[in-house]
Amino acid sequence: MEINVLEHEKNRLKFEIMEETHxxxxxxxxxxxxxxxxxxxGYHLKHPQTSHVTLLIETTKKDPKKVLLDTIADIKKKSTxxxxxxKKAVK
Length: 91
Known about the structure:
The chain contains two helices and four strands, in the order E-E-H-E-E-H. The protein has about 90 residues and is α+β, with helices and mostly antiparallel strands. It has a single domain (about 5-90), classed as 2-Layer Sandwich (Gyrase A, domain 2), CATH 3.30.1360.10. Strands 1-2-4-3 form a four-stranded antiparallel β-sheet, with helices on one face. Helix 1 (about 20-30) packs across helix 2 (about 65-90).
């Protein structure tokens, strides 16, 4: 997976993820909305047959890079919890 940072300002982060589409981008942008400091969280896929997606994060006070890293940590935690619970359910 390749990530290219297009913009990184005080309260704005725009980057693209190569070889990814809606699945990962939708997960990240939806989870970002759980942070009350996030004012913009969205992504753009130029065409359904392309294989890279552009994400945009804007915040009021927090560094968007930190918000993104915290969000990814939350996703990882929830994923691990889901995996554990699923394994118990299908014994």
